[in-house]
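sry for the spam today, last one i promise. struct tokens for design, 360 residues
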């Protein structure tokens, strides 16, 4: 049986400004009902990629396909209004002089008046805003305006939805609920979604697949679990969370550290490496004033640290240690409340299965 083409398929997209490749050989394929997050820091080329897909920016090279049909290359270019692509942005972009109903119906150019009204009512029911159908945007909260923007984008039944930081303008307490509602509706509509965000938590919460972008290139792509647990480099680890780093030199496929040896298979002898791990994988063993016996550890050798600072963060506590071996600072997160006094001596170990070894 022939595999159907991806709903959205972008191949080797490039865009150059002033001699610099802002988007450099980007390729992404998205199936119907799939949410892919283009994740990366500001200025890495995410929004430029979205604009090329939408048709408001022209690529220097590469192709864009929808359901296997060419939409745009460097010669042929389908106008934006014929691409069956919906758009959602951070600022909602509702028309203040139009009612909620008129905003939602704005893209329904070929429908009859009755068809427009039926589609508007259907979508406003789904986003729980039917009571505001004859109201105006200024009468709505930010979260309600975002739901109207979603309804308007979905009204023409686009095959693809492009979302550029659509939730960043919302209050934190509203954001999770609006994101979840939006995701549910998009899945029900079987829409292929490309969401641009610089927030790892948002990508992890919403995406079926994450494309991690840096300096115009996609450096890693895959399911959220795989991108998080199998990062491609040190920067990928640090983008998702704080990261502790040990420096070591490889000898005999082993990197020697104050925490014991770490495997470095395939790395040539003499190579300087970074051993990277997240704060939740630094384990603490309390030792009374540093005078007790050094603990034995199944996760390698224990190293001694002195508490510099401890802070309660809500669901967990963050403890910073100055390490005896070189004075460097390592961070540990501990569930609930754990606030040792500065100067307290503790023994620390590392979960070996949660460490990443990268060429320095």
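last one done:
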């Amino acid at each position: 049986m022939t595999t159907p083409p991806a709903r959205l398929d972008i191949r080797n997209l490039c865009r150059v400004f002033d001699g610099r490749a802002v988007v450099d050989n980007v390729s992404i394929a998205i199936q119907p009902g799939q949410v892919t997050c283009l994740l990366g820091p500001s200025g890495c080329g995410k929004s430029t990629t979205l604009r090329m897909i939408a048709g408001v920016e022209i690529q220097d090279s590469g192709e864009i396909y929808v359901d296997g049909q060419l939409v745009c290359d460097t010669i042929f270019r389908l106008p934006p209004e014929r691409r069956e692509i919906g758009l959602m942005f951070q600022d909602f972009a509702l028309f203040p002089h139009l009612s909620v109903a008129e905003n939602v119906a704005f893209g329904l150019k070929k429908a009859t008046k009755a068809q427009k009204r039926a589609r508007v009512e259907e979508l406003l029911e789904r986003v729980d805003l039917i009571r505001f159908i004859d109201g105006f945007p200024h009468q709505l909260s930010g979260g309600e305006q975002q739901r109207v923007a979603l309804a308007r984008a979905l009204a023409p039944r686009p095959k693809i939805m492009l979302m550029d930081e659509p939730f960043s303008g919302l209050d934190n307490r509203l954001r999770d609920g609006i994101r979840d509602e939006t995701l549910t509706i998009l899945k029900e509509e079987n829409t292929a979604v490309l969401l641009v965000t610089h927030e790892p938590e948002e990508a992890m919460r919403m995406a079926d697949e994450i494309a991690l972008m840096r300096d115009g290139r996609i450096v890693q792509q895959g399911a959220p679990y795989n991108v998080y647990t199998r990062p491609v480099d040190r920067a990928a680890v640090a983008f998702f969370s704080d990261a502790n780093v040990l420096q070591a030199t490889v000898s005999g496929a082993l990197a020697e550290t104050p925490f014991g040896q770490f495997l470095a298979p395939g790395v040539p002898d003499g190579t300087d490496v970074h051993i990277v791990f997240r704060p939740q994988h630094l384990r603490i063993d309390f030792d009374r004033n540093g005078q007790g016996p050094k603990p034995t550890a199944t996760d390698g050798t224990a190293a001694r640290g002195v508490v510099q600072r401890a802070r309660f963060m809500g669901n967990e506590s963050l403890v910073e240690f100055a390490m005896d071996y070189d004075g460097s600072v390592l961070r540990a997160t501990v569930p609930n409340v754990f606030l040792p006094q500065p100067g307290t001596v503790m023994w620390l170990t590392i979960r070996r299965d949660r460490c990443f070894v990268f060429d320095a």
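The radius of gyration is 25 Å. ok im logging off now
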